[in-house]
Amino acid sequence: MIKTDLVIIGGGAAGLSAALAASDANLNILIIERELILGGILNQCIHNGFGLHMFKEELTGPEYAMRYIDELQHKNIEVLLGTTVIDITKPDDFMLTVTSEKDGYQHITSRSVIIASGCYERTRGAIQIPGERPKGIMPAGSAQRYLNMDGYLVGKNIFILGSGDIGLIMARRMTLEGAKVLGVAEIMPYSNGLTRNIVQCLDDFDIPLFLSHTITDIKGKDVLEKITIQKVNERFEPIEGTEREFEVDTLLLSIGLIPDVTLFDSLKMEKSDITKSAIVNQHLMSSVDGLFICGNALHVHDLVDWVSEEGEKAGKYAKAYILSDEKQSREHLKVNPGAKIRYVVPQLIDYSHLNEPVTLSFRTTEKMIAGTFKVYQNNQVIMTKKAKYIAPAEMENIILQPDDFISFDPITVILEEAL
Amino acid sequence: MKELTCIVCPVGCHLKVDDQLSVSGNKCSRGKVYAIAEMTAPKRMLTTTVKTSFPDIPRLSVKTKDPIPKELIFKIMEELDNVIVTNSVKIGDIIVQNILETHVDVVATKAI
User: Fold this and answer.
1) Which domain holds residue B100?
2) Phi and psi (nearest 5°) for A351?
3) How is domain A1-120+257-328 classified at the CATH fold level?
4) What is each CA distance from A30 to A20, A242, A253, A284, B102, in whole angstroms?
5) Which of A8, A73, A170, A376 has the most crowded Cβ, counting Cβ within 10 A?
6) Contact pairs from chain A to chain B, CB under 8 Å
């Protein structure tokens, strides 16, 4: 039995910065990572563009991760690599069951836990593409791992569904390695990827982007042979007569990410239907006392810099939780997404411990050239923020000071279009 | 006449450049600079991987230290196909010096 003060599940961007922020000469901190190296998904993201906010320079994924890994060496932090958490309960302190090839089953107790386990990719089943079920269809991130870490190109003639940044980055990456990318289909009338990626990943290599298109048929006995795409109307229904066929051996899916918190069901934490993860307060603590969540395990971020920032926050508050011995009662007010806002994190604000600014992170439901975010409490506007080039793909935030609140009643965030 | 999307800022202006390099569609002067650079000497950062002789780490991620001419991207990829890293490296170590006489080094972005 290993006894610790704080276990951090996941050694990627969120977990690393959580560990650094929590580190203390008097605390036993343990990072559990299932891969054999730290860094998480950053290790396979070999393209550059990371760290503009954190380090004011453009780094590749592995370089960004190394900035944190290097810092870890000087701290009082233990790391268990190649180790998977298979169960977590909370009889009194947390009790984790972990397994690894090297040490087999082990139990670990901990006073506090930070979940920084990232997210997973949606697969074909999530959007129910019609057609046959051949080999050769996989999430874009899986193909990225095979290519950039293991050195395998998964196909020669490729089509990509979904124009999120992973799909765009993989279109370029597969092209550079000698594959032919025949096109990218996006069901929305606009891409959710960065303009820079549209230009440098698609336009540079003359890869067509089919907006308002989706895949309506897949053919292939054993391996993928052919796909059909069709234009869709405003209700996302395929329009007859717009069929177009592509002979491909590989279909990459870039159709969304979901926080990976399935392991923690036995803890019975309250979850949000929208983010598919825990409901947390401004300290990133879930409804389970001492359990913190951050990074893509909490909600999917667009920039790793914001993941690191959130990890840092979780680390800071987990440390404060462990160091404050007394059991604290918490009183929460609700944070609601209002007009044109899809979700807000945190969903709760603990007003019995409201002595620092609160950052609300949220995503909108639509694209807009200019608009104003407003926070309402008791039908009064307590904060406004103007923004330009608003898009669902970009995470927005508002900072509230403790004295901005006029009561302990729920608050609502809305977006109004500037006319 | 060539059409391109400006990537200098999030506005993403749709630019038109004619044969005399006169730019239209740009909302600011940076768009003009971008369009002319794209038309005369476009450059890109290249990030990719090279082979290693380490069974546990079969690929080493690398990047060009500075942007390289866009038309050399595939030639540089070919050149890097011949590289096998056999010794341990640190981030920033030079893997190929002055690749294809561009005065740009290809450096490691990962440590082995």
Assistant:
1) 44-108
2) -85, -5
3) FAD/NAD(P)-binding domain (3.50.50)
4) 11, 55, 35, 19, 46
5) A8
6) 65
Indicate the DSSP class of residue A239.
P
Q: Is residue A410 classed exposed, middle or buried when 0-12, 13-18 and 19+ CB atoms within 10 A define those classes?
A: middle
The answer to whether A1-120+257-328 and A123-255 have equal CATH topology is: yes
A199 lies within 8 A of chain B by CB: yes
Q: What are A125's two structure tokens?
A: 């089943």
Closest CB from A63, A148, A195 relative to B91? A63
Strand partners, A335: A411
Entry pTM: 0.93
**Strands ordered across the beta sheet of B84-85:** B84-85, B47-52, B59-64, B106-108, B94-96
Indicate the angle between helix axes A165-176 and B73-81, nearest 10 degrees. 70
Q: Using an 8 Å Cβ cutoff, are A7 and A87 in contact?
A: no
**Which chain B residues are Cβ-neighbours of A177 within 8 angstroms?**
48, 77
A369 touches chain B (CB under 8 A): no
Q: What does DSSP assign to residue A267?
A: G
How large is the ipTM?
0.91
CA–CA distance, A72 with A415 (Å, rounded to integer):
40
* Largest separation between any pair of C-alpha atoms in chain A: 69
Q: What is the CA radius of gyration of chain B?
A: 18
Dist. CA A347–CA B63, nearest whole Å: 41
What CATH code would you report for A123-255?
3.50.50.60
pLDDT digits (tens, 9 = 90+) for A340-379: 999 999 999 999 889 899 999 999 999 898 999 999 999 9
Q: Are B31 and B59 contained in the same domain?
A: no
The token pair at A97 is: 């069951």
What is the Cα Rg of chain A in Å?
A: 22
The 3-state DSSP composition of chain B as helix, strand, coil percent (nearest 5) reads 25, 30, 45
CB-nearest to B49 from A46, A196, A200 is A46
Span A304-326, pLDDT tens digits = 999 999 999 999 999 999 998 66
- End-to-end, the C-alpha distance of chain A in Å comes to 62
Partners of residue A388 in chain B, C-beta under 8 Å: 10
Residue A189: cis peptide before it, omega within 30 degrees of 0 = no
Residue type for A48, please? N
* Beta-carbon separation of B59 and A66 below 8 A: no
Per-window interface: A 77-136 vs B, CB < 8 A = none
User: B67 φ, ψ to 5°?
Assistant: -60, 145
Q: Who among A60, A177, A196 is closest to B63 (CB)?
A: A60
Chain A residues within an 8 Å CB radius of B11: 389
